[in-house]
Amino acid sequence: MTPTAPIAQKPRTDVNPVRIYTLRIDGRDVSGREDETILTVARQNGIFIPTLCHLDGLAERGACRLCIVEIQGSPKLFAACVTLVKQDMDVITDSARIRDYRRKILELIFSERNHVCAVCVVNGNCELQDLAVKLGMTHVRYDYLNPPQSVDASHPRFSLDHNRCVLCLRCIRVCKDIEGASTWDISGRGIHARIISDLNQPWGESETCTGCGKCVQVCPTGALSEKGKSVAEMTKRPQFLPYLQMMRKEAEI
Amino acid sequence: MSPPTTKTRIATIWLDGCSGCHMSLLDIDARLAAVAGSIDLVFSPLVDTRTYPQNVDVCFIEGAASSGEDVEKLHLIRRNTRQVVAFGDCAVTGNVPGMRNRFALREVLTRSYLENATHQPRIPDRDIPHLFERVRPVHAFIDVEMFLPGCPPAADAIFEVLSALLEGRPPDLAGRARFG
């Protein structure tokens, strides 16, 4: 920023103060800003809600539904990551019904692609594998679909293994919102949905990919990995994200 | 469970897997010797018995079910066993043997026995069990009392399951077992 550039003012909070709501989560009285989600407020208060597609620093997507919670007075389940807090809301984050659905969601994710932890590059460092332990998923009750999925190893430094993809879309979000390249997108619907680079071209031939590797670091599973890493050798480092956003915010002000 | 005055009758079996789970079982080491007095290993790749006995308390099943013979064994085990443990990832998920499921069986056999054979390439068609089109976990065929994931399960996890079964309590696998 040059010294002559206009300096952006901090938004005045005294003219339009953010509303603070009080609500209950798991019987505890908590408070949250009107623009905060149930997930944010729960985490601020040390209440655990499992997540998979959510990542601190990325826009919410509400894709995986693992963060479903009950709100008293409604028969619906709500995704905590995309539901804003309201005054007097009474949230339940853990019940037999919620545990049952979360486990089913996880089992469906495991059965939909080919998640073979034993031979996976992120074995031991995988958010999906960890969730199975955390949510007590000892086995999958559905038939495995074993779909024929491909591996795109055309990029010189990274590879994309569709067998391990859970369609959390973190890669798409980080590429568009943080890197600004919009290399990743999604094609197809439902069970046919898959991640594509550019216009469904090999990743290595992408003209938009900057090779920054942010997508690889935020990927919760072994779907995106660094080349040259063997079984259980890859560790993801998504911690850069909130830090990067904090730095950018400070630079703006 | 059998009365406390008699030994617990334990069986182990190895279906479509690599025997790594049995190796991990042996990795329990000295602690295995400590419980040896209270168990009777009635059927296992580690002992000489040829036929699966009756009245077995616990059977640890390693490996996935890939052939008619595997499924026959599973039903035989189920009929004669009080508690069945799906022992390791192959038994629980299909795991590595199940990686062939995305290919047609014919493709797999052609690749293994014709394309990669250097001496008298021939797909075996007699004297050995007929492979299923798809490899499936143990619980796809029989009821399973306990799932012990891991490739292989850690010796600590196996010992915890074994101890729990001997003591008649539910095992505490928290932090001890996971897939992979």
- Which two chains form the greatest contact, residue counts included? A-B, 26 and 25 residues
CATH topology description of the largest domain in chain A? Alpha-Beta Plaits
Instruction: Outline the biggest β-sheet of chain B.
Output: 5 strands, parallel
Oligomer: heterodimer
Query: How many strand elements of chain A?
Result: 10
Count of distinct structural domains of chain A: 2
Kindly provide the name of the CATH class of the largest domain in chain A. Alpha Beta
Give the percentage of residues in beta strands of chain B. 15-25%
Q: Structural class per helix/strand content of chain B?
A: alpha/beta
CATH architecture classification name of chain B: 3-Layer(aba) Sandwich
Number of helices of chain A: 6
End-to-end separation of chain B in angstroms reads 30 Å
Mean pLDDT of chain B: 94
The SSE order of chain B reads EHHEEEHEHHEEH
Q: Mind telling me which CATH architecture of the largest domain in chain A this is?
A: 2-Layer Sandwich
Short description:
The complex is a heterodimer of chains A (253) and B (180). Chain A is an alpha+beta fold.
Q: What descriptive keywords fit this protein?
A:
heterodimer, A: 253 residues, alpha+beta, Ubiquitin-like (UB roll), Alpha-Beta Plaits, 5-stranded mixed sheet, 3-stranded antiparallel sheet, 6 helices, B: 180 residues, 5-stranded parallel sheet, 31% helix, globular
Any overview of this molecule?
The complex is a heterodimer of chains A (253) and B (180). Chain A is α+β, with helices and mostly antiparallel strands. Chain A has two domains: 20-94, Ubiquitin-like (UB roll) (Roll), CATH 3.10.20; 111-252, Alpha-Beta Plaits (2-Layer Sandwich), CATH 3.30.70.20. Chain A contains six helices and ten strands; from the N terminus they run ββαβββααββαββαβα. Chain A has helices spanning 38-44, 96-112, 127-134, 170-179, 214-218, 240-252; strands at 20-25, 28-33, 68-71, 77-79, 90-92, 151-152, 158-161, 184-187, 194-197, 224-226. Chain A has a five-stranded mixed β-sheet, with helices on both faces. Chain A has a three-stranded antiparallel β-sheet with strand order 6-7-10. In chain A, strands 8-9 form a two-stranded antiparallel ribbon. Chain A is globular. The N and C termini of chain A lie close together (11 Å). The model of chain A has no long low-confidence stretch (mean pLDDT 93). The radius of gyration of chain B is 17 Å and the shape is globular. The longest helix of chain B is centred in the middle third of the chain and has 13 residues, at 68-80. In chain B, the strands form two sheets. A five-stranded parallel β-sheet of chain B has the order 2-1-3-5-7. Chain B has a two-stranded antiparallel ribbon with strand order 4-6. Chain B has helices at 20-26, 30-35, 68-80, 89-93, 105-115, 155-167, and strands spanning 8-14, 39-43, 56-62, 65-67, 81-87, 131-136, 146-148. Chain B has one domain (8-101, 135-167): NADH:ubiquinone oxidoreductase-like, 20kDa subunit (Rossmann fold, 3-Layer(aba) Sandwich). Helices cover 31% and strands 21% of the residues of chain B. Chain B has 180 residues and is of the alpha/beta class. The two termini of chain B are 30 Å apart. At the A-B interface, α3 of A face α4 of B.
